Amino acid sequence: MDERVIFHTEFGVGISSLHPQTLGIQYLLKQSSNSSSNCQSNDRNLIFVSFKDKAIINSYKLPPQSSSSISASASSTTTTIANKTGEIPVLQRLTTMEPLSNIILIKDTFLIGTALKPGKTLMYIYDITSGSLINTVAMGKVHYMAIEKIKYMDTRGYVVTVSNDGRFALWDLVSLINNLEGDDAKPAYVFNEHQGVGVKDVSWDGSESVFLSCGEDGNVCCYNFVSNVIDDLNTQTSLELHNNINNKNNNSNTLFKSAVDRIVLVSKFTFPQAVLQLELDSAARFAIAVLKNGELWEMPLIYQLGKGKIANLHSLTMQGNSNNTQVALYNCSLEQDLDLSNDSLFNLIRRGIISCRVVAKGCKSIKLSMDSTSIIMGRKKLGQSCLVVDLNTSQVIKDVGTSLGLNVRAENSEGIFVDDVWTVNLKKNDSDKEFITLPNLNKVCEDSHVINVLNSGEFFNEENILINDFDKYIETNVRSIAHMFQNTTFDQNSDNNTNSKKITDNNSEIFTARTNNSSNIDEINKKDKEISDLQQQVQRLSKAYNDIKEMV
Fold first, then answer.
1. Which long-range contacts does 388-395 make (Cβ < 8 Å, 24+ apart)?
2. Which residues form a coiled coil (predicted)?
């Protein structure tokens, strides 16, 4: 396995490998200067880059790298591979409505980007498989300022938007797609816990149950996803209430139970400065915070207090009843500022003090490695690049990106931003995999963009199609039932010892002839009609005869 990192500056987007065997293998995306954000496909073969001043998205195909090619190259031309900077050309240019500040790709289908227009913030949702602009969603009253970041919670299906207006919101993906054009989109959750100042980042653990947010107010808010089973009489339907009243054996104390998913604010952590970025460990053991002054703080969330006791600062059980939670407040301080000789960790936590430590300085943005043992740190100082820092020892392990020509070269530079870290399977070589050209992105929303889960072929079979065609259904099913009765005959040696040929009743004779004659179903239908006509004629004649008889 190999581990790669993608980062960008105002001069372009670069990719570097973190694996020891592939150290020095780096790529530079051509024509990627002044980029605003980037995203990748699920297989990490395609990269999409948006720009601050251009209404366009560039796509790039990342060259595959197999373990065999690495070992062969290392043995023969080690210096060439180690120092080579590969430039990846633009694969496609997809035009958009306007410059997009943030883009994400969901399930290799939905490409979502945000843009700030005068007076409103918009979200554009594209289907890249067809090129359709399936919806343009106005953020309405939720976000009236620029969106800082946009992320996606894969397990829960929420699109998370973080804005400078002091709010962050969780949007249901299906609701965003099906939202009618012109209507204000309604998020699933809206949070305004940062005192009206800008929210900078959100992060969650691997199970998507612990959720953190940070902002310019210097607070880090911790939330829990809770699924509560509640008793609510008002949620019962009228039929259920009627059955409960009429059922004498029903327990009158039993109410209707339903599960409700909601997010609960559990804890607040206060830092001495604004927190610009957060990274939460996949197991929610600790969080890494990037402060405004460039310091990188490690904030423990799980403490070992001795005697088998553990303090879990993001656990809801510490607060008692989840239906009436009281928010726990903590003040984050550095180790050197605390007197740990006189105060134990348990006493510090009871007093609401968290002992943190500075991992590094001069940091602009970070990403945790896949095993959470090291940090990929983007520098903001002049002339620096991305550094791989060991979390335990705070020692620099690698320096990546120096040979890409993306270093900060101006005093007013914004620094280097680390975008994503991912793994690559070196044993798999997809170089022969053909790429299908993406369609151009449309400028007009589609009329119908409702997700139809019944489009799968398993929901359609011959029987369902026949049901939709009534005439064909009658012809197929009713005729088959008639053929079943055509072969029905009576036993001539039955106990009544009667001969059906001697029956004088006209209807019985016709019925016997019908049951013994199985030549044609159309003839049977014709004879039934004749019988009905004869019966009606007999009734008319009988009525006329009775009338004449009364007159005489």
1. 388/18, 389/359, 389/360, 391/298, 391/359, 394/359, 394/360
2. 524-551
